[in-house]
Records
---
Amino acid sequence: MPVIPAVSVDGLVMRYGDKLAVDGLSLTVEQHTITAVLGPNGAGKTTTLETCEGYRGPQQGTVRVLGLDPVRQRKELHPRIGVMLQGGGAWSGVRAMEMLRHMARLHAHPLDVEPLAERLGLGECGRTPYRRLSGGQQQRLALALALVGRPEVVFVDEPTAGMDPQVRRTTWELLQELREDGVTVVLTTHYMDEAEQLADMIHIIDHGRLVASGTPLELVRGGTVTTIRLVVTKPFPPGAPGSLREALGPETVVAQLDDVSLLVTGPADASTLAKVSRWCDVNGVLPESLTLGQRNLEDVFLDLTGGELTP
């Protein structure tokens, strides 16, 4: 029997009045993976995840989580998933550990509360009312609340927002351990390094549509735009940028940074460095260094969406 996806979204359409928030979106999250859903503010990612979590019903299309309809089969699905909200999720006056213990009692086979709280650094603020917790402490508690019921799929929204570097790293390790234990993690984040570090698969959405999917490596290598920095031992001859651009082709931009440095931006493959080297030889230019720059996930994101990931 084939393994069903952890999450399947097919042709999802969601509107708020006249605003089209999700426009025929289709994507799949495989089981036992960490999958990041990225997009600029207003791209439709939160609406999509809220539909997967059962907080909204699809206006068009279908959504399935562990093969179940999140709205019509809510009672069957909810004990099997965990949801970490970006804000809220606890009463204003409740103490952190009280809330975590209460949530544990709602599940048939919860995790041990004390080790989970210790792992996420909640021991230091366990007796503090929720409203007095820092933003990072509230995030840690929200993650603990999502995990304490031993979910098969956990949705985490901005899991490390406001956390200090040490706790952020601990949270990464915890999410990776969940995947190794067979839990599927679906996350949104505004931190590109977080997505690159954690995600097995990344879906990028913009204006409610899927614009790219792939592993971090596939997305970074999927484009052809790179940079080449050429540094020489003595000043370039007159007209060097135009001459090099002519040698490389019209899709290339060549900018002179200073008397001895040029930056080449544009399509590049294995032959591009050879072309730059031949140009140097023909023009009597002696390179001191010739370096090829690798795009990162943020470069890909900006190319695809034209927007920034801002919290």
---
Amino acid sequence: MTRAMRADSERTAAAILEAAERVLREHPAASMEQIAKAAGVARTTVHRRFASREALVEAMIAWAAEQFRDAVEAARPATAPPLIALHQVTANVLRVKVSWGFAMSRAVTGDVERIHDEVRQACIGLIRRARDAGVLREDVDLEWVRRVYYALIHEAAEEGMAGADTDEMAACVVDTLLKGVGA
């Protein structure tokens, strides 16, 4: 019985977080009542789980960071062939950034900052592997490549939020990163 209650509780929390993302993305000043309605739960249920709107937003940021980390890990950046991993990381991250745009646009601190640092290190490791495999020039500054890659992902996520296909945007990001835009 405890497991069933826990699973139900986790589903309710996930439904609230997902509804909050949808509502706050469209209406950043939305009330807890509007979020509860979108989640299909009573306002008291939202308040029982999240003491305040700020606590809900913090939980959303943490949830999105975990989704972000899981998306990168699922692409196996340390073991998959570098080109395949680069494309898969990009596509996976774009899906998270498009789905969790409100939460992902918030400042990160504490445990969320640690998660972002883990992702950053995985990204640097993947870029290093790509360089060592001859996919990137030997003389590239790994941190600069990471920053350019992140900027490309950010722009592609903006397009994804406007309806662009995330797989197509991922291909565009990787192509631009590897070949640039010159003739």
---
Amino acid sequence: MNYLLFYEQVERILETEMLSEPQISFLGERNMESPIPVCYLGIVEKLEKWIRQNGYTQSGLTIEDLADLLGTNRTYLSRYIKATYHVSFRDWITGLRLEYAKREMMEHPELTVSGISEKSGFLSLSYFTKIFTERESCSPARWRKMQVDRH
């Protein structure tokens, strides 16, 4: 019985102790409207640094790998990503990698789509092309050509 009372008190504190720190959007940009619970503050700084260092480009990255790196556990990290970015870990990583691939295509026209796919952390060119085409409604090569034509 004492455990339940203690748990309820902790829950109440966590719910009421919200900092007015901004959250991070899907691709690492801050959203000033949503507060961050106190319990997530340790993850926030480490995750922002990891994003700035393009840690998501590591091939075969798992949520367990990232949780270990951040000093937390898989479940906690998964909940944080879902609450902050409103997507699953897999979709979040894929989004980060796709944005990175787009930047690389623009900044390094000498690189092949295959090379960019690998550099972005995708395990296969076919998966990269499939996901890119689903999200951008055209192939990576076509997207790159359209961007070059615009500039």
